[in-house]
Amino acid sequence: MATIVEQMQIAKNLKKLRILHNLTQKQVSKDTGIPRGTLAAYERCGEISQERLEKLADYYEVPLELMTMAWVKLQESVPRAYIS
Q1: Which CATH number goes with the domain that contains 33?
Q2: 17: which of 35, 59, 60, 71 fits an S-S bond (Cβ 3.0–4.6 Å)?
Q3: Domain span at residue 65?
């Protein structure tokens, strides 16, 4: 179970990754099968299951263990191809 701080970081990273890829919540929902309202809740710091976090990390091609990192650290740790 993620801490509140980790949940907040995951929420920020999910939103930034989606925007960076020029995707709408509707498109991510269509691609992943996760309801759009649920994605919106995740981006607002809603609790997220390990399974869903893994699914979204795979979708954005980002290593799961980096999803709780500060955005700057995530950018430094992931090859540019993954997040550009």
Answers
A1: 1.10.260.40
A2: 60
A3: 4-83
Q: Among positive and negative, which fits the CA dihedral 23, 26, 31, 35?
A: positive
Angle at the Cα of 31 from the Cα atoms of 25 and 32, rounded to 5 degrees: 85
> pLDDT tens-digit profile of 24-83?
999 999 999 999 999 999 999 878 999 999 999 999 988 888 888 776 666 666 655 455
Cβ-based burial of 70 (10 A; exposed 0-12, middle 13-18, buried ≥19):
exposed
Q: What is the pTM of this model?
A: 0.81
Retrieve residue 2's tokens: 């993620």
SS (H, E, C) the chain: CCCHHHHHHHHHHHHHHHHHCCCCHHHHHHHHCCCHHHHHHHHCCCCCCHHHHHHHHHHHCCCHHHCCCCHHHHHHHCCHHHHC
In the chain, how many domains are there? 1
